[in-house]
Amino acid sequence: MSEVKQTAHINPTGEIAETVLLPGDPLRAKFIAETFLEDVEQFNSVRNMLGFTGTYKGKKISVMGTGMGMPSMGIYSWELIHIYGVKNLIRIGSCGALQDNLDLYDIIIGMGASSNSNYVSQYHIPGHYAPVASYSLLEKAKHIADEKGYPVHVGNILSSDTFYSADKEANDKWRKMGILGIEMEAAALYMNAAEAGVNALCILTVSDHIYKQEETTAEERQTSFTKMMEIALELGE
């Protein structure tokens, strides 16, 4: 870890590992730390965005909440990369499924992250940039899932700025383009990581299905998405 500094969002009271799992919900971060990690130390509590570092199968790994939406993910991932020296950032979150072959609790690995956000405009790219995962992490995650016998879907996801959209036809259009599921953070993470030359991946569990009218509870989202967590933890360097 680079020299410890305090920001308005992170005030480390302990080590931050080079590999960090990033659930949106800070209570999911706490659950992962208490359930899977050994020798755990909490390193952040600013704004109740809980962060923990411990070991998993002998490897140092951190987990920290990021909040909801790309602005929040953009802040935390940027600071973790540029100020605290994190090299591997793995978002683990929930999503709403769009495709008929997806069911509740299915796992999606985001190969690409389409978006309706204007986050990319800051880079002044002379064209349309397609945020994608780091292939090294994606390949490893798929291999781990196969070894564990956890079926996963790999493909394009949507990082949306709108949870309640006034455009009632938007989901149909994204569904037609093959988007697997909708979440709210991955595109910002992928762009921050690409610009900095580090690795990023998004692993999601289907928490609701937009077309089948199925959904999980808030408690289930916090504590029962363990297969996704196990895959991500195995990615620790």
Annotate the secondary structure layout.
Elements: E1 19-22, H1 26-36, E2 38-44, E3 51-56, E4 59-64, H2 70-82, E5 88-97, E6 107-115, H3 135-148, E7 152-159, H4 170-176, E8 181-183, H5 186-196, E9 199-209, E10 214-215, H6 218-223, H7 226-233
Parallel strand pairs: 1-4, 1-5, 5-9, 6-7, 7-8
Antiparallel strand pairs: 2-3, 3-4, 5-8, 6-9, 9-10
User: How many discrete domains?
Assistant: 1
CATH C-level class is: Alpha Beta
Percent of residues in β-strands? 25-35%
Tell me the number of helical segments per DSSP (H or I, 4 or more residues long).
7
Please report the total strand number as a whole number. 10
CATH architecture: 3-Layer(aba) Sandwich
Give the rounded overall mean pLDDT. 96
Helix content: 25-40%
Main sheet: which strands, in order across?
5-8-7-6-9
CATH topology: Rossmann fold
Distance between the termini: 13 Å
Uncertain segments are none
Class by SSE composition = alpha/beta
Largest sheet composition: 5 strands, mixed, barrel
- Per the principal axes of the C-alpha atoms, what is the gross shape? globular
| SSE pattern | EHEEEHEEHEHEHEEHH
* Structural Rg: 17 Å
Which properties best describe this structure?
30% helix; globular; alpha/beta; Rossmann fold; 237 residues
Concise structural overview:
With 237 residues, the protein is an alpha/beta fold. It is built from 7 helices and 10 strands.
